[in-house]
Design goal:
By secondary structure, the chain is of the alpha+beta class. It has 24 helices and 15 strands. The protein folds into 3 domains: 322 residues, no CATH class; 74 residues, Alpha-Beta Plaits; 148 residues, no CATH class. The protein has a 5-stranded mixed beta sheet. The longest helix is centred in the last third of the chain and has 32 residues. The N and C termini lie far apart (76 Å).
Length: 654
């Protein structure tokens, strides 16, 4: 048994660190090139900015759902890199790359195959986690790695590492830490059973985790109180569970009218078009149809991304010479040729119809892909339990069987908790973050069925069988990875921004409106930035946390967004009102479509606004999806404006 443990430890030490480095660096380059920030991400970025720019603290000065170290990590990179998005990008990309590298290391240990580990890691990357979920992408594989490390060598140092990792995950986001803690406890129980050793190890595990948590606990107690921290988290969790269904399964929508086989139409060429000022929406749509400009995406102001389906010189020449088009990008205006920088896969698909072949498109549609993957992720833990039961019936040595079962059970526990509490609506937004641990568990399940211990007399046959299975698995996973990445790269939307321009945009302070998740808010951002002072706060009645970051203004009342009824209890609303009384909040923005929800959930705050603010005007702020009076602007009573913003005829308070 000692020889087996030494052999296992040697296998751990033989990890090909050159490939580990390649995976990490490659992930960094890829994720930096494709980096983008969504609306939800600014919920954290704007809170972190509140810490850096105003010296405010979570739970004490503004409400927070339990992202303690997440906020302070973002605040640290903002303090280091400046009031821009470059620091956040470095943090997110670094955590992503570390998480996928840990995934690769675990897959390599499971499969004992470098090609398979690389390909399966590529599959987990292709699922597409969102950058604001960097904590999940990093901590879930880290938790699995630390659990398996302890199972390979049950030393005190490995137990301490597991406890430190658990506590750190908890303080980044409390539920992450709880999931890893459950997996760790199951691992200890599986290895040590109900012996005295288990009691000692679980006591040491909890003690180290508490000791690591002491600085955070002391900080919270001094700055606002641990009870207040718990109260805000519980309130948020209760509201969130009511807002999103924990046990709702995704729907599969089958199109019975679709053929058995189909060939996708050729994807268009990515181009940018800036329309002339004053062009109406109906006129723009007509021109889009005339010039075959498909899949419009607002980039900001009057500029739109499109896919140009007809790239003939005649059509391109008519496009660039049209009086309604002010400028274009990715088009050579001298030769009237599209300067395509499409991914290689998209170029191949354009000219090779076989690569665009779709089997059962009514079933295997992009809309159903997420639902099918969700069902697969729900089934994998059940398969893990069956494999553990099956292994218990094999003629292994007791020690090997016990350790393998403990490893599997710890990962099954982690994945079950993730499936139940994380993998819920909206599924498309969440599925990428949970992919790494479930991919690891799925690979472990397959490996347990393929890499079966055999009698010495059958060793040569087993090696031959594994060689054949290995080739087939590499081919199967390779084609699967190619198919996923083919679809991903051909539907990424716009062409990735070149390195230099990407870094310049991320380093801009205040952040460039070109980085807005949706260009529809660029007019509102400009007005808020130009018509308030640096010390002023803003308030919005709907979920738009990116406004505060791009306008370089703080959010008022301790609420980065009024959404989902979070912290709408009377005691919390009273705190919002008290803070509004103390702060300089010259402007309040209301989205009229969602104002009814705000009035229903935050009656006390709405009464305060009606008493202390007046309607200054209504506007669309250039949002093509809003009506001309889609947004209402309130200004504080008895605070005169000194200017008028000409574009929207609204008051300025600079």
């Amino acid at each position: 048994m000692a020889r087996q443990q030494r052999h296992r430890a040697d296998a751990v030490d033989n990890t090909p660190w050159a490939w580990v480095t390649v995976v990490f660096v490659g992930s960094c380059l890829f994720h930096l090139l494709t980096y983008g920030v969504r609306d939800d991400h600014f919920d954290r970025i704007s809170r972190a900015r509140q810490i850096v720019q105003y010296g405010e603290l979570p739970f004490k000065d503004f409400f927070d759902p339990g992202f303690f170290l997440t906020l302070f990590s973002s605040a640290a990179v903002q303090a280091t890199f400046g009031d821009n998005l470059l620091g956040e990008a470095v943090l997110n990309v670094g955590a992503f790359s570390a998480g996928f590298t840990l995934t690769f290391v675990l897959l390599l240990r499971i499969t004992r195959s470098l090609p398979l580990a690389v390909l399966i890691t590529g599959l987990s990357v292709a699922v597409g986690p969102r950058f604001y979920d960097y904590d999940k992408v990093f901590f879930y594989p880290l938790g699995a790695f630390l659990c398996w490390r302890y199972s390979e060598r049950t030393s005190i140092s490995n137990l301490v590492l597991l406890a430190v990792g658990t506590a750190t995950a908890f303080w980044f986001r409390y539920d992450n830490g709880l999931y890893i803690a459950c997996a760790g406890i199951v691992l200890l129980l599986g290895i040590h059973g109900t012996s005295a050793a288990f009691v000692r190890r679980i006591g040491a595990y909890v003690m180290v985790a508490v000791l690591v948590s002491l600085p955070c606990l002391l900080f919270l107690q001094v700055s606002g109180g641990v009870p207040e921290y718990a109260r805000q988290i519980i309130n948020y969790a209760a509201r969130e569970s009511n807002r999103t269904s924990l046990f709702h399964l995704p729907d599969l929508k089958i199109d019975n009218s679709a053929p058995l086989l189909a060939v996708k139409s050729r994807s268009g060429y990515p181009v940018k078009v800036r329309w002339t000022d004053g062009l109406g929406a109906a006129e723009r749509v007509a021109l889009e149809e005339r010039f075959t400009l498909a899949e419009p995406v607002l980039d900001g102001g009057r500029t739109w991304w499109y896919r140009l389906e007809d790239n003939s010189v005649e059509n391109v020449r008519r496009l660039i010479e049209d009086a309604h088009i002010e400028d274009t990008a990715f088009i050579d205006r001298g030769t009237a040729e599209v300067m395509s920088s499409e991914p290689l896969v998209a170029k191949l698909q354009r000219f090779v119809p076989l690569l665009r072949l779709q089997i059962l498109p009514g079933v295997f549609s992009r809309a159903n892909a997420t639902a099918m993957l969700c069902y697969l992720f729900l089934v994998i833990p059940a398969l893990g339990v069956l494999v553990i039961w099956w292994n218990s019936r094999r003629r292994w040595s007791t020690s090997a069987r016990q350790r393998e079962a403990a490893r599997g059970l710890s990962l099954v526990t982690l994945c079950v908790l993730i499936d139940v509490f994380i993998l819920r609506e909206p599924f498309a937004a969440r599925i990428g973050a949970v992919a790494p641990p479930l991919v690891i568990l799925g690979t472990w399940v397959v490996s347990q069925l393929v890499l079966v211990p055999v009698e010495p007399a059958r060793a040569s046959e087993a090696r031959l069988g594994w060689s054949v299975a290995h080739v087939l698995l590499v081919a199967f996973v390779g084609f699967g990875t190619l198919a996923v990445w083919s679809d991903k790269l051909s539907t990424m939307g716009v062409t990735p921004v070149p390195w230099r321009e990407k870094l310049q945009r991320l380093a801009a302070s205040p952040p460039s409106v070109a980085l807005l998740p949706s260009g529809r808010l660029s007019g509102l951002v400009r007005y808020a930035r130009e018509c308030t002072g640096p010390g002023d706060r803003l308030m919005t009645t709907w979920f738009v946390p990116q406004l505060f970051t791009f306008a370089s203004r703080g959010f008022a009342g301790g609420m980065v967004s009024f959404f989902g009824g979070h912290w709408s209890d009377t005691v919390f609303q009273q705190r919002v009102v008290n803070r509004l009384e103390e702060q300089s909040v010259p402007l309040v923005f209301i989205e009229k479509d969602t104002y009814g929800d705000f009035r229903r959930d935050f009656t006390l705050v709405d009464d305060y606004l009606n008493t202390n603010y007046q309607v200054a005007g209504e506007s669309s702020f250039g949002d093509p999806y809003a009506t001309e009076d889609g947004y209402r602007v309130l200004s504080r009573n008895r605070v005169p404006s000194n200017l008028t913003y000409e574009s929207w005829q609204l008051p300025c308070f600079r």
